Structure formats: C-alpha cells, structure tokens
Amino acid sequence: MSKVEMAGQAISTQKSDLPKLAAPAKRALAAAGIRRLDQLTGFSADQVRQWHGIGPNALNQLRLALEVQGLSFKGEK
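The chain above was modelled as a monomer; its predicted structure follows.
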C-alpha cells in the first residue's frame, strides 16, 4: 500500500474496490474503517447489517462484490 504524507498525516493512495453505494452505507463503512473489500472478510454479514446506514440493498451489493473477488463475509462460503 502506498502512502502520501500530507499535512503531517499519512494518506493511503490505494484505490478502493468497494462498489458504488448510497451515502449512508459509504459513511457506515468509513466509520468502521473499511476502505477495501478484503477488510469485510473479518466481519459476518450479521455484524455489517447492524451498522447504521447498511440496509438490505447495500448488504447485497457488498456480498456480490465480495463474490466477484472470490471473497465472502466471515462464516460464509
């Protein structure tokens, strides 16, 4: 992962592979520190569903994006 130093803070320049989501879902992922799909593999779908801003549509979009990458939520195959 490459980082750029800006105003004394390291900022990741790695491109996100998250799908296009509604603003509330984007905020929920950002609040959880999720920037890449592979980070979601540490969480179950039930855990992610609990995050404020993640509704059924966002969860389905995330699940499909994970499947395309050969990944899944924790506990799913």
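The longest strand covers residues 3-6.
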